[in-house]
Amino acid sequence: MSFFQNLSKNLQTGLNEGYSQAQKLSSEITPLAQRTARQIQEKLGQTDDISQLPQEYTELEQKVDLLKSVYKTLLSVTSTFDSESYDYPNNVKESVTEMSKNFTNKVEKLASARSTSEAHAVIVSENPRSLPKTLNQALSTAANVSALKIQQLSTDDSLDIVAQGLTQVGQVEAKISEAKLQQDKLIQTNVNKPFVLQLKQSLSVADRARKNVENKRLSYDAARSSLKNCKPEKEASLRVTLESLEDEFAAATEDAVVVMKDVLKKAEVLEQLTELITAQLAFHKAASELLGQLLPTLENLKEDAGGKVLSDIEDADI
User: Fold this and answer.
1) 244 close to 31: Cβ distance less than 8 angstroms
2) Where are the chain's structural domains?
């Protein structure tokens, strides 16, 4: 076979393949174009001949939409627990101070390093874990820093009792902070994660099934409209197409009903609410117990402080 014959054959093969692909693309684009045109007509109010969906289907749609709204509304608030610092005071600025301390600490360690390997270990070492960014931890830090200032700067023995009280508060608030972090972790795992999974998986499957129903309905209604206005010679083929689209529409509707029923059946909103309240109860119970133990201690220190002041006054009078 000559070069030109090969070239001609290859060109013909390419043209045939191109034509086949074009037909396939056309078969995919045409239904989409028909659905889009039909959708525009309906939105513009140019037709009211719209196939009605079964009552069971529309009722399930309403229930699924309501369930989705509940998940989104709850998650818009419970997602707050995903951020450790959601209750951390905005006016507390520690990042620069912490970085400065970490840098100074590394410089001091480098200065005392006795070998290259020790210096390298200092450079690549991680910084100490920073304190949690919670309101209770901020209270703990404020109390501990204040107690330290009194111990370092005050020469007044009467303030020692205040320092003791501050230290006690600092310890308790740190424990409450840990309990709060445990609460948040439980809510993240047992509440937020299931909510997100429901929205991204189960409800997304339902959305796709409903979208498929809508597409099948638009195609079916577009075909019905075409059949009404077609030429006699095309009526037979269009009627066959219409029957096929009607079957697809019915099948898609039945499938969507099954999917939506399954989504509603597996919804566990009350389960997640139970987990939410359980986590909150555990935290508040722990905080209540810790604060309940702290309060008598502070009351005793307050009495001791009053006695100390009175004693100092009497000594001064003498």
Assistant:
1) no
2) 1-48, 53-92+136-317, 95-129
Of 119, 99, 97, which is closest to residue 108 (Cα–Cα)?
A: 119
pTM: 0.73
With 0-12 CB in 10 A as exposed, 13-18 as middle and 19+ as buried, what is 157? exposed
d(C-alpha 58, C-alpha 299), whole Å: 64
Digitized pLDDT (tens) for each residue of the chain, 318 residues in all: 555 556 555 655 654 554 344 344 334 447 777 778 777 766 776 677 678 999 999 999 999 999 999 999 999 999 999 999 999 998 876 544 454 455 445 445 545 656 666 545 545 454 456 889 999 999 999 999 999 998 888 777 778 889 999 999 999 999 999 999 999 999 999 999 999 999 999 999 999 999 999 999 988 888 887 777 777 777 777 888 888 989 999 999 999 999 999 999 999 999 999 999 999 999 999 999 999 999 999 999 998 876 554 455 444 444
- Could you confirm whether domain 53-92+136-317 is CATH 1.10.10.10? no
Instruction: Please report, as a single letter, which amino acid is at residue 157.
Output: D
